[in-house]
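Summary for the lay section of the report: proteins are chains of building blocks that fold into shapes. Here we show the chain for histidine kinase and then a coded description of the shape we predicted for it.
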Amino acid sequence: MKHRHLRSVIIFGSVVLLALMLVQGFWLNRVVNITERQFSHDVNLSLNAVAVDLAIESGTPIEVNELKSNFYFVPMHARINHSQLDDMIQREFAKRGLDLPYEIGVYAADRDTLVYGNYVRATLKKPELIADQSGSEELSNFAVYFPSRVSYLAGEMKIWLFSTVTLLLMVGFFAFAIVSLLKEKRYADMKNDFISNMTHELKTPVTNIKIAHEILSQSGGEKKPYLDIIDKANRNLEEKIDQVLMAASIEQGAQLKMEKLDLHEILKECAENFQVRIAKRQGELKLELEADHSEVYGDRALLIRAFENLIDNAEKYSIDQPKISLKSRSDKGQIELKVSDTGMGIPTALQDKVFDRFFRVSQGDRHNVKGFGLGLNFVRSVFKSHNGGISLMSELEQGTEVRVTLPLA
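The coded shape description reads as follows.
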């Protein structure tokens, strides 16, 4: 991935996640406030109903004081039956679904000391009032305390808390993915730099061998067959080095030398370079260039190398006499080119992998054709950099057809 694309992905992903977190935080805050207000409202209604019932006989005014978010005090200044108070509060809480434990306290009104206390476990059961006369003849007030109010409110908002935790996990995963991606990008850059430096260093001895071959070739004689072997091997090595350099330059986003080109002329030039080699194997290379328009914008060197790779593969993977055809047609603003052969073909299960770097189709436990597995990966990179596409269809023992599309100039 190019640096600017990676930066764009990080910025866009960060903005989206930040927006989601702000929206989630806004709604979570609203839900917390609404849940707290609803809880306070239900408690006030319940205690007010209890106070009304208790005040019928005493005639004292009703007032529920929320001293803290989990502590409510009701100044009754009335005689309170302790058991009856327990049952009344439990009944009113059950009506409103307040299913959480609470503590009841009854205080002497004149000296403000606790004269009765009870802890009631969470229940939604509505008890019947017990005719119990236990209580105090002195005037009293009562209070209710909720020791587990926070956990109760959290339970009421569990779906919102779950979505918030999920979002935080997503943010954490995104951060981990970005760190891993940056680390992989750094390693990839180091690898590409190493490949580029190594191939550049190899160019020097290759050039020296070429110069030495030209000098020695002037003497001719019995050494000529060996010199021809050196020349062939050296040219093959030079092609491989150039291919690796070109692939690395494309991956690093090097600027292409775009110009208006006639694709038919390029195909004819590539075909001519292979005619002798194919003729030696008693094969045939046919050109069926039927496209009405064949001009494209592209990098001449890269396109020539890409098409040479396709023809080279078609020739190498043909077992007997290679029969290769190059066809073209134009339609809807693009030109389509087909490179077909009648070679050994590619298994269906492997056809999606042939464009991967370093992947090579093998038979049994050995590779039948020498190579690095860079050819088709390089070809795909070239056509992708030209806003084109490439696809492959193949059948074992029947041959392979590679289709390439490029936008017309």
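Put simply, here is one thing we learned. The first strand starts at residue 65 and ends at 68.
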